[in-house]
Protein: TRAF-interacting protein with FHA domain-containing protein A
Amino acid sequence: MISFEEADTEETVTCLHMTFYHPCQNDQMFSCLNFCRREQVRADEVAKFGRDSNVCHYNLMDTRVSRIQFSLQFYRKLNSSECCFEIKNMSKKTKLMVDQTELGYLNKIDLPWKCIILFGDYQILAETEEGVSMDYFETYFHLSEVPILQERCLPSRQPVPETGISSPLFPSQGKNPTEIDENEPWHTGDGGWSRF
Structure:
């Protein structure tokens, strides 16, 4: 009998969690997706999402969805043990948004470890749970009752100060900014700000 210390280390598996939302979702639309159940996919397979059940692993029963909407390729980064996903837009009719990046037909990018995928009225929150197995990965689907864009607070590109004005309050006009005490009074002088 093999002792606990001598047993082989169990490989962790990369799992892609995907939470789906559509404003008109019904029982039929997502009927081919197995929610709340992990499914194994071989590492050398390309996972395709779309309407055509003959080609796609994951079917969306909606005539507005392309035969193949998008695909996910699992891969290992060069000179690294890190595994990740590449997403490719396979639709000629519909652009695919991955966070702020717009993908046209056959455009592809690395899937961020946490992002929102948009096409048509579909919203998908994708989150990658890292693992080390290179033989296969897992998918784990969830269904959201509320819009994902509403649930997830997306950070703005530029911080906005308490005043609500996003433009610089003190234009530098070629000078380096000076640190000041916020409690000291200021007034406008000849076209600039100066202390009393």
User: Anything to note?
Assistant: The domain at 15-150 is CATH 2.60.200.20 (Tumour Suppressor Smad4). DSSP finds one helix and 14 strands in the chain.
